[in-house]
Design a protein that fits this description.
Length: 183
C-alpha cells in the first residue's frame, strides 16, 4: 500500500518536528545560536533546515542540520532516495549537504542524531538489503501529484553497524529542561 499526503499535511507535520528540535537545541548550554533556514532557497536546494553554532571549550563550531519527522512506529528509518519518481529527482537522504540529520519520531518522542556522510556511505553500500517503499503527494482535491521513493532501514541494524549515531529519548520533555545529555 502506498501512503499519500497533501503537501500541506506533510509540511505542517515537518514544522512541528523542527519546532521540537529547535527548543531542544536552544536549551543546550553549549548553544550559541540556532538559525532556522528552512525557507531560505539557498539552503532548501541543499536540504538544510537549521544552522547551529555551539561552543566546546574555547572553540566555536557551526553545523548544518536536516530535520526529518516521522510518526510511524515500525522500528525503521525511511531514507528518501527519489523525491519525484517520474522525474528521477534525487531524494533528500541522497543529496542533502547537511552534516547531521536529526530524525525525530513523534510517537516515541525519540530523536536520532545521524552523522549524514557516514550513514549515507553505509546506506549506499547496503541499499539492496532494505525494502523499497513509496509515498505519494496529492493535491487538495485528492489527485496524485508525484511519488516519492525511499528505503526502510531498521533502526536496530543502523545502530549496530554505524558508529556515531546517537539517541536522545523524550526529546520534547528534555527541551526546556536544564539537564541535557546525549545517550
Amino acid at each position: 500500500m502506498v501512503k499519500s499526503y497533501t503537501f500541506d499535511e506533510k509540511n505542517d507535520f515537518s514544522k512541528k518536528g523542527i519546532e521540537v528540535v529547535c527548543r531542544y537545541l536552544g536549551d543546550l548550554k553549549k548553544t550559541i545560536e540556532l538559525k532556522n533556514v528552512e525557507n531560505d532557497p539557498e539552503y532548501q536546494k541543499n536540504d538544510i533546515d537549521l544552522i547551529w553554532s555551539y561552543k566546546k571549550g574555547e572553540l566555536k563550531f557551526f553545523v548544518s542540520i536536516e530535520v526529518k519527522t516521522d510518526k510511524y512506529t515500525t522500528g525503521n528509518f525511511w531514507f528518501e532516495t527519489l523525491s519525484n519518481e517520474s522525474l528521477g529527482t534525487k531524494g533528500c537522504f541522497v543529496k542533502s549537504k547537511a552534516r547531521i540529520i536529526f530524525y525525530y519520531f513523534t510517537e516515541w518522542d525519540d530523536m536520532y542524531i545521524l552523522p549524514l556522510n557516514k550513514v549515507r556511505e553505509w546506506f549506499l553500500k547496503n541499499i539492496d538489503r532494505f525494502k523499497e517503499s513509496k509515498t505519494t503527494t496529492k493535491d487538495l482535491e485528492g489527485n496524485y501529484k508525484h511519488t516519492t521513493v525511499g528505503r526502510l532501514v531498521p533502526i536496530k541494524i543502523l545502530m549496530q553497524e554505524v558508529e556515531g549515531v546517537k539517541l536522545v529519548k523524550n526529546i520534547s520533555k528534555r527541551a526546556n529542561s536544564s539537564q541535557q545529555q546525549l545517550h
